[in-house]
Amino acid sequence: MAKNFKRHTITAALPYANGPVHIGHLAGVYVPADIYVRYLRSQGRDVAFVCGSDEHGVAITLKARKEGAAPQEIVDKYHSMIKESFEKFGISFDIYSRTSAKIHHETSSEMFKDLFDKGVFEEQVSSQYFDEEAGQFLADRYIVGTCPNCGNENAYGDQCEKCGSSLSPSELINPRSALSGAAPVLKETRHWYLPMQDYENWLRQWILEGHKEWKSNVYGQCKSWLDTGLRPRAMTRDLDWGVAVPLKGAEGKVLYVWFDAPIGYISATREWATAQGKDWEPYWKADDTRLIHFIGKDNIVFHCIIFPSILKAEGSYILPDNVPANEFLNLEGDKISTSRNWAVWLHEYLDELPGKEDVLRYALCANAPETKDNDFTWKDFQARNNNELVAVFGNFINRAVVLTHKYFDGRIPERQELFDIDREAIQKVNDAPGRIAGALENFKFREALNEFMDLARAGNKYLADTEPWKLIKENPDRVNTILNIALQIAGNLAILGEPFLPNTSRKLEKILGSGSEVWSRAGQIDLLPPGHEINKAELLFEKIEDDVIDAQIQKLQHTKEENESSQPDVVTPSKPEIAYDDFIKLDIRIGTILEAEALPKSKKLLKLKVDTGIDQRTILSGIAQHFSPEDILGKQVSVLVNLAPRKMMGIESQGMILMAEDGEGRLRFVLPSEHVDNGSMIS
Fold first, then answer.
1. In this structure, which of 67, 152, 163, 375 has its CB flanked by the most CB atoms within 10 Å?
2. Which class does domain 120-238 fall in?
3. How confident is the model at residue 572 (pLDDT cuts 50, 70, 90)?
4. Which one is predicted more confidently, 577 or 394?
5. Which DSSP helix (H) or strand (E) runs through 400?
C-alpha cells in the first residue's frame, strides 16, 4: 500500500500541444490524478506531481502544415493555452513543463546515448514508406489506411483510434500518405530498434505475475500484447522536428516521440527539483518511491510495456507501481472528436461558466469512465449540480450555519446528552475517512466521491430527522447537541472534500473559520470547539438554470450542423439509370500529361496537353485549386476522349480528365494500379 512508501512520483499524461484540453482529457487523466495527489498531500506525503506539453511527433507537424505555421509556433500557442487552462481549473501540478525545453532534450539524449553505449539497440536498415510527391519518409502518423482488425479506413500507422489497436504501417491495408494522399513507396533507411522481444519474459513476470492488482482493462491489454509476442520497435524516426538522434551519421533523424515523451516526466522532475533546491534522483531511482502513471487507455502499451522496458534497460530507475488508466468519455452519445470540434473545451467552459470549476470536477468524477466508456451530457451535468451539490451538500451546510447564527449568535454550541440518532451520525463521521481513503488507495474515484457525498447526505438527513427548528422552544439544550454535531460534520466535509472539490472546501473553511486541516484530523467530532465563532452563510453552489444548459446544447447542435453541411453524404445518391448501350458509348482511355500550365484569368482551370495514345490534345481541367502544374507533369490519367469539344476561356477543350472527390472535397486522379500504355481502354 502507499503508506509503505517514503515519497510519491505521480505523472499525468503529457497532452499534445496541437490543440486545447477537453473534458475527455480531464475525466480520463487529470481530474483523477489531481484528486489522488491532493489526497496524498493532505496526509503529509512527499509528492512530486509532474506533467507538461508533449511538443514533438507527427501530430504537431500535421497541425503546423494545416495552419501554415512553423511547429514551434504551434507548440508555443497551445502550450500556453493548456497551461493556463490547467491553472485556472485548479489542477495542482508541482510543475507543468514542456518537451521543447533544453533540459528535456538533454535528458532524452542522455538516455538514448546511455542505451546505445550499452549496446541495447539493434541498428537496422529497413524499407519504410516514402512519399515521392512530398519527398520525405513518412512517420507512422503520416500514414493512414484500413485497420486490419476493425476495418476502420482512417487508421493511423501506429494506432487505430476506433478500436484502440496498436499497429505498424506495414499492417495497414491500402496505406496512403497523409501529406499528399498518394500511395507511398518503400525506400531503405537506417534506424535504431529496441529489441522488445528481449524483455518479453521479464514483462510477463513483472506485470502478469507481479501486478495482478492492476485494473482489469490495463492488465488485460498488457496480457493481450504479451500473448501475441513482442517485436523490435524503432526508437528513431526520419523527421525534422523533435529531439535529434545524438549520434554521428544520424542527421535528419529524431527520437521516436514515444521514446522521448515519457522521459518528459523525468526531465520535468529534474526541472522542478532544481527550482526547489532538491535532488531529483530519489523521485525516480529510490526503492522507497512509488511511481504512478495516470493515463488514458490509448496510452497503456507505451506506459506499461515500452517505457518500462526502456527504464529496465537503463537499469537505475524504478518502475511504475500502478498505471490506473481510464476508458474514454463520450459527449452526448457521440465520440469526442477534435477534428469535428465535438468536444467541451476546458478554456471555453471556464469562460462561459465562471466559478463552476468544482461542478465540472464533480460531474466528471461522478461519471468517470473507470471501467468502461461513459457519456457526458449537459442535462446530467445540470442534474448533478442542482439535485446533489445544491440540494444535498449545499443545503446541509446552509441550514447548519444559518441556524447556528439564528440560535447561538454564530458560535458553536456545546454538546449535551447524546441519543442514538446522534451516535449514528457520529459513527458516520468516524467511518468516512477510512472508507474514502480505501477507495482512493485503490483508484476507485467514483466510489470515493460517493462515500464523501454519503456523509453530506447523512448530515442533511440528520437535520431533517431531528428538526432543530421545532425543538428550539421546547428543548433548547437538545438543539445545542444537534447543531454541534451538524457543524462537526461540516468541518469533516471541508477536509474530506478538498481532493474532490478544492474551491468549495476553501469556501467552507472560510465559513467555518476553521482554516485548512490535514487528513489525520478527519473523522473527529471536535474539530470546532464550543464557543468558536463561525462566519455568515454563503451559498457553496448555485442552481444552474435551463437557459444556461440549453445554450451549451445549442452550441453542440450548431457544431453538428456545421459538420453535416461541410461534408457530403456518406453515399452520394446515384444518377438516373442508363442502358448498357449508353455506357459503351463512353471511350475512356489512359493518357499521360505532357504539359500543364495555369490560366492567368482562371483560379480553377489548368491547361493540359495530354497524350491519349491516339493523339496529343488540349484539355482544360478544373483542378488548379488542388494541384500545381509542376506536380502533375508525367502523371497518367483517365481521359474521356470522345466527349464533344467545348470552348472555355477562348480555348477549345477536347476531352475530360476523370477525378474522384473524397469526403473532404479533395480531388484524386482515377488511375490504373500500375503503369499501362497510353491509349489503353477502360471498359
1. 152
2. mainly beta
3. very low
4. 394
5. helix 395-408
Q: Where in the chain is the domain with CATH 2.170.220.10?
A: 120-238
Instruction: Provide CATH 2.40.50.140 ranges for the chain.
Output: 580-682
User: 656 exposed, middle or buried (CB, 10 Å; 0-12, 13-18, 19+)?
Assistant: middle
Helix H or strand E segment including 267: helix 257-276
Cα 655 from Cα 667, distance rounded (Å): 18
Secondary structure (H, E, C), 87-147 = HHHCCCCCEEEECCCHHHHHHHHHHHHHHHHCCCCEEEEEEEEEECCCCEECCHHHEEEEC
Which three cell numbers, joined as nine digits, stand for 44?
Answer: 503529509
Which has the closest alpha carbon to 18: 67, 65, 59, 57? 59
Q: How far apart are CA 524 and CA 631, in angstroms?
A: 76
CATH 1.10.730.10 range(s) for the chain read 359-521
Beta strands in 535-650 (DSSP E): 588-598, 606-611, 616-621, 636-640, 646-648
**363 to 384, 502, 583, 661: CA distances (angstroms):** 7, 14, 60, 43
580-682 maps to which CATH number? 2.40.50.140
Q: At the top level of CATH, which class does the domain 2-111+256-326 belong to?
A: alpha beta
Task: Tell me which CATH homologous superfamily contains domain 359-521.
Answer: Isoleucyl-tRNA Synthetase; Domain 1 (1.10.730.10)
DSSP for 554-586?
A: HHHHHHHHHHHHHS--SSPPPPPP--HHHHTT-
- Reported as a single tens digit per residue, the pLDDT across 86-131 is 999 999 999 999 999 999 999 999 999 999 999 999 999 988 888 8
Helix (H, G, I), strand (E, B) or coil at 320: coil
Beta strands in 132-281 (DSSP E): 136-137, 143-146, 155-156, 173-177, 185-194, 233-234, 236-238, 253-255
Q: What's the rounded Cα separation, in Å, for the pair 232 and 218?
A: 22
CB 302: neighbour CB atoms within 10 A?
21
Domain with CATH 3.40.50.620 in the chain: 2-111+256-326
Distances (CA, A) of 628 to 228, 564, 598: 46, 29, 8
CB 263 within 8 A of CB 104: yes
Q: What are the pLDDT digits (tens) for 497-548?
A: 999 999 999 999 999 998 888 999 999 999 999 999 999 999 999 999 999 9
Look-up of cell digits 463561525: 534
Secondary structure of residue 538 in the 3-state scheme: coil
Looking at residue 525, what DSSP letter applies?
A: S
Return the ∠ at Cα 445 (arms to 440 and 449), rounded to 5°: 100
Q: Taking the CA of residue 533 as centre, how many other CA atoms within 13 Å lie in the half-sphere pointing to its CB?
A: 3
What's the DSSP call for residue 349?
Answer: H
Question: How many Å apart are CA 670 and CA 659, to the nearest integer?
Answer: 5
How deeply is 510 buried, as exposed, middle or buried, from its count of CB atoms within 10 A (0-12, 13-18, 19+)? middle
Fill in the DSSP letter of residue 192: E
